[in-house]
Design goal:
Blueprint lengths: L3 E2 L26 E2 L8 E7 L5 E7 L17 E7 L2 H17 L5 H11 L5 E7 L4 E5 L7
Antiparallel strand pairs: 1-2, 3-4, 5-6, 6-7
């Protein structure tokens, strides 16, 4: 994502049992810029555990995305997670969130949903408000009855 190859962890000196002069493999002692080549960046990452566990993964650079493609459209409601200590407080919080969103049409519902999901404590009573062109409806998590 940042165009940088991280340094090799937990290695002070390369193994003397490997001929490092043949081929194009090396351990990175410090971060190195990963230049663009006109094609997706690809890398292999290996992990060799002390207990004999070996793992290897190939990773590839994700294609460029337009952030506008991720914004909810008029036909795609955004989930707004709301929580409170009790049912009355939950009803009040749903009303406050609904009012706040309706007063600010310039605000991205996706951003509001993210802020509610990661920026607030998850209290005992929770609801998911489906926000679209107009914030509408609510489904209480843990119950199949709409409120």
């Amino acid at each position: 994502r940042h165009g940088v190859l991280p340094r090799t962890l937990h290695v002070d000196e390369p193994s003397p049992h490997v001929d490092w002069s043949s081929g194009d493999v090396r351990l990175l002692r410090e971060e190195v810029a990963w230049p663009e080549s006109g094609r997706p960046r690809r890398a292999g990452v290996s992990s060799f555990g002390a207990s004999g566990t070996n793992a290897h993964v190939l990773v590839e650079q994700a294609p460029e995305r337009d952030p506008a493609d991720d914004a909810p459209g008029p036909d795609m409601p955004a989930p707004l997670i709301v929580s409170a200590a009790g049912e009355a407080a939950l009803d009040a919080m749903v009303g406050r969130v609904r009012g706040w969103v309706l007063e600010r049409s310039e605000v991205s519902l996706g951003d509001v949903g993210l802020s509610l999901a990661v920026g607030r404590a998850g209290l005992g009573h929770r609801a998911v408000v489906l926000g679209g062109d107009e914030v509408r409806g609510r489904v209480v998590v843990g119950s199949d009855r709409p409120v």
